[in-house]
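dumping the sequnces here before i forget
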Amino acid sequence: MTTTPSTTAGTLADPDTPFAVVDVHKALRNIDRLAAKADQLGVTLRPHVKTAKSLDVAALMHGAAPNPVTVSTLAEAEAFADGGYTDISYAVGIDPHKLPRVLALLRRGVTLRVLLDSAEQAAFVAEASRRAGIGIPAQIEIDCDGHRGGLKTDDPALLDIGHTLHDAGCLDGVLTHAGESYFAYSAEERRLAAENERDTAVTAAGKLRAAGLPVATVSVGSTPTAHAAEGLTGVTELRAGNYVFFDLVMAGLGVCRIDDLALSVVVTVIGHRPEYGWIVTDGGWMAMSRDRGTGAQPQDQGYGLVTDLAGRPIPGLVMSAASQEHGTITARDGATLPDLPIGTRLRILPNHACATAAQHRGYHVIDSSRTGTDAPAVQAVWNRVSGW
Amino acid sequence: MTTTPSTTAGTLADPDTPFAVVDVHKALRNIDRLAAKADQLGVTLRPHVKTAKSLDVAALMHGAAPNPVTVSTLAEAEAFADGGYTDISYAVGIDPHKLPRVLALLRRGVTLRVLLDSAEQAAFVAEASRRAGIGIPAQIEIDCDGHRGGLKTDDPALLDIGHTLHDAGCLDGVLTHAGESYFAYSAEERRLAAENERDTAVTAAGKLRAAGLPVATVSVGSTPTAHAAEGLTGVTELRAGNYVFFDLVMAGLGVCRIDDLALSVVVTVIGHRPEYGWIVTDGGWMAMSRDRGTGAQPQDQGYGLVTDLAGRPIPGLVMSAASQEHGTITARDGATLPDLPIGTRLRILPNHACATAAQHRGYHVIDSSRTGTDAPAVQAVWNRVSGW
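..and the predicted 3d for all of it:
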């Protein structure tokens, strides 16, 4: 994992705005927190790299030796394979059309697991494996909370799929994701969601095993449940992605503090409309994404909260509106709009780190433990993987 | 303008999903429609390339000879300058930090106009011009509807700014944008918005001229008002961007028909949850963007409407939910969910073409006038400009 040194920028005051910033101090703190939790629970952590999509960020998690990762696209799988990763789970239901790229990675010596929840997909995977003479490792997606895909544990298709996969040398295990935990606002709700996620995965694995089918992997995880789980008996691995950066949605749930947010976007003040109470910036939805995740939370944070360039929150300021290349900052809760002249740089903390990061080609990297200055030094510029 | 021939794909059935598709037949029809309108109104059309961000799409507008364009980022300005464009307006209020890149383009022989609405910005532009010995052409942004930036026509700063710019050899003219026309649901409202946009720009130009200040450019435009304007006396140029692709927001306003939408995203069915009435695809918000523009319209279209791979609408189907790499399609209005097996390809028509296009690195190009097949042939793959 190589860190690309910064070639363009001395400090966050230098590059043209908008651009994305990663604070490695906070990212490492977030990484250490979940690593300690996984250690305590006695499970392997398999980070989902869909949030940062960066070999450099993954190196923060893994150090020198590439370790298990989860990906959301084959483009990520291929980029991480190029970076030396050999243990990759592709956690989106497999489109049979994509199996040639899966087989190409397997032929390179990468253990790439696919996910499926239907007899049709299992038949495609089994057939492709037989033709290629390579068992494509496959996990059966289990639905624990009605959030998205997966089979219920009592679905009779579970065993049929298990047999189809096993007969073709493909059966790896089961995977579930407590997506509804993104709406769990109390620690107790998240604890129960984690318990349910575990129970569901372990029940499904038990049903397969009771039918004589070997289950190697029992995979669970989401950022809220990973932090809330109190016991993961029977589970072999824990997945989470957002936790490396966190965001306002996670802070709104109580999974992290605002101070833990490691991703932000630097913008510049380009206008004022005092008659409306607006400060206009050059960071619109192109820079922040259209994600309004906190809009469904008790405290709506608009398009994001505002800090100064050093990362100190400016109380009462919110990015309340966005067009393509314009952001509107307003004051709320009786706060006074500060005097922020044209050219002032600010940082916006996003609703949803996965969506905001995706609007950028890379990250300017700072380390907030090393600087007390108003314009943090840029340590490096890291690239992101994009596309599919 | 070179068209990159397709090297990867025979038809829309071939590339891995999700990917963006441009139908040149519909794009050309949309382009011809507004070109005819501009001719009829007797104004220059200066297309905003922020929607497609593609030299190839711009070539559809301009043919062999590059013509006036509007851009939303300096990255677009630089890419279009590289493509031979020499008449470019950068229609986002200028950040003084970006003036060195503006000057670099001017030194290359590109007439790049900047936009501003404050005495502070005018002073920065005048000072940079004097230092460089190059008058940076600048337009004064005028607010016609309280949508975003700009000066009201009665703001005393208008003349001060005009003098500052003129004294430095920078004053080019005035620009206004009827952003509130995106909420004008009747032809009459849009006609009135266009009239107000024109009146406001012409009034501002008149005030400057009455003070002895020369005004070359009087620029107006938005996709809804450009199509609704009945007379543009006093206006020199018309801007619009979205019109090349159109989208569900524009169709919801009545500016176009669903059949005019030239941009879509090809996705593949990867799952079924009959108990919830869901078809799951591999196109989530990463492919569609998080834009929910129709959510504020009388007919909410979710994350998009669904067609088959040939582009024929599938009545009653809507993409009702999205996660990062998953889309959920449901039936509404009593429609029956059709049988769409795993691997079936569909196309999703987006809420907001600018936002959806931005999620992709390029476009697979088809021509719906040339094919009657179920899987349209891919004529080319066109790149997009990204970043800032």
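The longest strand of chain B covers residues 263-273.
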